[in-house]
Specification:
CATH class of the largest domain: Alpha Beta
Strand content: 35-45%
Strand order of the largest sheet: 17-16-15-22-23-25-24
CATH topology of the largest domain: Rossmann fold
CATH architecture of the largest domain: 3-Layer(aba) Sandwich
Number of strands: 25
Helix content: 10-25%
CATH superfamily of the largest domain: Vaccinia Virus protein VP39
Shape: elongated
Largest sheet: 7 strands, mixed
Structural class: alpha+beta
Length: 401
């Protein structure tokens, strides 16, 4: 059944379609309220874009749902993103389980952000006992064996519902947001992906071209995101630990259109040049500072004077009339970095700072130390720190020319 208040009904061959109008939100296709026996099923929806003006971020254009009891109980649902439809993925498969006999409805709710063509026919198939539970991440019949995929299916489903595409190849599980792809190999990858692609913590817009500096590159997701921003001409990325650095290079290889913009260095930045030997762990990289962990494997890391390295980048940017944007997430190193940048009068050479600060090393130092360096150099600061935490976020923009 169609809701003709949302658009017009058309016939294409033997198909009946509703073409919804943009800016009209509601349930476009509903019913059929047919009784089904208990079991496991998969229902297939066919949805395509009729007219759509891309926004600056991906957007949900529809939601598909399986409901019972006249729509009062939702058995399964999934978001439909514009990027998937733009890529030609018009088929949406949704698995669900039914515990008791019930009349079911398979409906499509449009958000009004695009004009859609929705096929009235929704094909329902009961899964056999030999078939695994169905996930919308997979095509029907697909049976991946990657252990990471199988062990983290619920987390990957969460990524999918926030706009990611998931695929599995011989090298492992690959997630993609729009045109950026990366391997998922570590539980910490979910946190990083959410910060970068769901919460947009490093998304910025300007009419001024720039270079970006990624201090604390980890596995390279922020570097790739910044490289995808049209006004960013180069990204200079610093990561002292070998495992995340190698993984970043692996992720860069999946993005040949973006990786030429990125220059990655297997070193960290700090207040001086040093080569400490510290402990690290392969599966614990987010919270590892240059002071290392309490245990793990021994690793010598390369720390370089931040003022020397940044001065090189600033000089090159000035020569090309480009601003400098610095993202800093380096587990406590932000304090010695700001100390040495201030000492060498380099704080004012940066246009924008995107900072996650950490009170790992000294209880006496907080974001107020960083704010003091920024305010005296004519920055306006947006402090998102929660008082009860030992870390927080700062965004700062220099106001003077």
């Amino acid at each position: 059944m169609f809701n003709e208040a949302l658009g017009s009904v058309e016939t294409s061959g033997n198909k009946k379609l509703i073409v919804t109008e943009k800016d009209r939100e509601g349930i476009a296709v509903y019913g059929p309220y047919v009784e089904y026996e208990p079991g496991r099923y998969v229902v297939t929806f066919d949805i395509s874009l009729h007219a759509y003006t891309p926004s600056y971020t991906d957007t949900i254009v529809a939601v598909v749902e399986v409901t019972a009891f006249l729509g009062n109980t939702v058995l399964a649902k999934s978001n439909v993103f514009a990027s998937r439809l733009l890529a030609g993925k018009s088929i949406v498969n949704l698995g669900f389980s039914l515990m008791d006999r019930a009349d079911l409805e398979f409906r499509v709710r449009t958000t009004g952000r695009a004009s859609l063509r929705i096929d009235h026919d929704r094909i329902v198939r009961q899964l056999s006992e030999s078939e695994a539970d169905y996930s919308p991440l997979l095509d029907v019949g697909e049976n991946p064996t990657d252990p990471f995929f199988l062990n983290h299916l619920s987390h990957l489903r969460g990524m999918y519902e926030h706009g990611a595409s998931i695929r599995v190849d011989r090298s492992g599980t690959i997630a993609s947001y729009s045109d950026i792809s990366f391997y998922m190999k570590n539980i910490e990858d979910f946190q990083i992906a959410n910060e970068v692609f769901v919460f947009n913590e490093y998304n910025f817009h300007s009419n001024r071209k720039c270079v970006a500096v990624d201090i604390g590159m980890n596995v390279g997701l922020t570097s790739l995101f910044m490289a995808s921003i049209p006004i960013v001409k180069n990204v200079y990325s610093f990561e002292p630990f070998k495992v995340p650095y190698r993984r970043a290079l692996e992720n860069f290889s999946l993005n040949p259109s973006l990786s030429p913009k990125i220059k990655a260095y297997n070193c960290g930045l700090g207040g001086s040049n040093e080569r400490p030997t510290v402990f690290s762990q392969e599966d614990f990289t987010i919270g590892t500072s240059v002071k290392g962990l309490a245990g793990g494997r021994s690793e010598e890391i390369d720390i370089r004077d931040a003022s020397v390295e940044l001065q090189k980048i600033v000089a090159s940017a000035k020569h090309r009339n480009l601003d400098v944007v610095v993202k800093m997430d380096c587990e406590g190193s932000e304090f010695p970095i700001f100390d040495v940048l201030d000492k060498n009068d380099l704080v004012r050479e940066v246009r924008v700072f995107l900072i996650e600060w950490h009170k790992w090393w000294s209880a006496d130092r907080t974001q107020r130390d960083i704010v003091s360096y920024l305010t005296k150099n004519d920055f306006t600061i947006f402090d998102r720190t929660v008082a009860s935490l030992i870390s927080g976020q700062l965004y700062a923009v220099r106001m003077s020319a």
